[in-house]
Specification:
The chain is of the alpha+beta class. The protein folds into two domains: 264 residues, outer membrane lipoprotein receptor (LolB), chain A, CATH 2.50.20; 100 residues, TATA-Binding Protein (2-Layer Sandwich), CATH 3.30.310. It contains ten helices and 18 strands. The strands form two sheets. The chain has a twelve-stranded mixed sheet.
Length: 401
């Protein structure tokens, strides 16, 4: 049980790079020497291997490439036109800086020494942005602006365990039990197979492929390259049914599993650098009201209610339609949707490029689309959202009448 918890709370490539996600991907790192010849392995055995992995130390280079199918230049321009770059937050704050990873291609250097010490450096030409976690300290440094961000956990507190188990729920005690649970959860909606081998960052790896069995999902497949020797995930690829570039393609180009030097995780602010303390910044934001909803008590058209941001958020609520890969969340704002022609002019072109007008038994509305997540906003204020196709959203709205 202890070993399983230890492994599950520190899957290095995902935890350190922040790519679960989520939604970040990477340029393929396959070597030219061809696929390695490895012993056959079943999907269950490979899942067990991942679960049994206890990788605590590594260093290497990580490449990230993401294609969400969004006109991000237009989005950036629109946001800049409305917000003007103002906002109260530090430009070196990790919560802001790392959002750059949701688009384009990026190279990162990564080092990790257990759950208490990690370092990530985002390379951008001659400039570097470093994020260092060492015990209770988190440092971020942007060489371009010569700014430093520092946050320290209050004395006597422990770092939160991201894999805290709710009362009454226990993690499987062995890798085999965990693999059994994963395959059981997949059920009739998911296909999990081993599809050959690959060479990733000079390491022999198996390819674990996860595919929806249900029609209507925008996900074509999820592919994970797993180190054949130690079970560490080395590469993650998320493909859309639309084809083209992967939505997420993330992996190591170089990796070393030996213990990094302790000096890799030490940091001292350079002379003359501007230092922002996270706790002080938070207090200042609360004092001047920077964290208040910029739209006031409610978002336009009751959207504040729909997403729990307005004063009347108890009107709506989230209902789940379907299951598995075609699950759709329905949110009823209780108010007509805002008209796109009433949006600020900086947004109108962007909204038109993102949205498709649709009609059906439900009435009329607009489907806002990416390569993975789509959302139908009906003119009467209902929202249907999921990793499903436009037709699946329309069908769900029609059936909900």
């Amino acid at each position: 049980m202890a070993e399983t918890r230890k492994a599950s709370r520190f899957i290095v490539p995902v935890a350190v790079a922040g790519v679960a996600a989520a939604t970040i991907g990477l340029v393929p790192a396959l070597a030219a020497s061809g696929d390695p010849d490895l012993p056959e392995i079943t999907a269950q055995q490979l899942i067990e291997k991942i679960a049994a992995s206890d990788t605590q130390t590594l260093s290497g280079t990580f490449r990230i490439s993401t294609d969400l199918g969004l006109p991000l230049d237009g989005l950036t321009s629109a946001l800049g036109g409305i917000g003007g770059g103002a906002g109260g937050g530090s430009s070196v704050d990790p919560s802001e800086k790392l959002t750059e990873l949701i688009s384009g291609s990026h190279t990162l250097r990564i080092a990790a020494d257990g759950p208490e010490r990690q370092k990530l450096t985002l390379l951008d030409g001659s400039d570097e942005y470093s994020l260092i976690h060492n015990g209770n300290d988190v440092w971020a440094y942007d060489s371009k602006s010569n700014e430093v961000f520092h946050e320290k956990a209050p004395a006597g507190t422990d770092a939160p365990d991201a894999h805290e188990v709710p009362k009454g729920k226990e993690l499987p005690g062995t890798p085999k039990q965990l693999a059994d649970e994963v395959l059981k959860a997949a059920g009739d909606t998911t296909s999990i197979t081993v599809d050959g081998t690959a060479k990733v960052a000079g390491r022999d790896a198996y390819q674990l492929v996860i595919k929806p069995k249900q029609a209507g999902s925008t996900v074509e497949s999820v592919k994970i390259a797993v180190d054949a020797a130690n079970g560490t995930p080395l590469k993650f690829t998320l493909a859309s049914v639309e084809g083209g570039k992967p939505v997420v393609d993330a992996g190591f180009t170089k990796v070393d599993f030996s213990k990094p030097a302790a000096s890799d995780f030490t940091f001292k602010a350079p002379e003359g650098a501007k230092v922002t303390e996270g706790a002080a910044e938070k207090a200042a934001e609360e004092a001047d009201g920077a964290k208040e909803n910029p739209f006031g008590d409610e978002l336009p058209g009751g959207l504040g209610d729909a997403f729990g941001l307005g004063a009347g958020s108890d009107k709506g609520g989230v209902n789940v339609i379907g299951e598995g890969w075609t699950t759709i969340a329905k949110i009823d704002s209780g108010a007509p949707a805002p008209k796109t022609d009433e949006a600020p002019k900086e947004f109108q072109g962007l909204l038109d490029s993102l949205g498709d007008k649709v009609t059906g038994k439900f009435g009329s509305g607009t489907v806002f689309k990416t390569k993975i997540v789509n959302a139908l906003l009906t003119d009467d204020g209902k929202v249907y959202v999921g990793a499903v196709t436009k037709d699946a959203l329309v069908n769900a709205a029609n059936a909900d009448k």
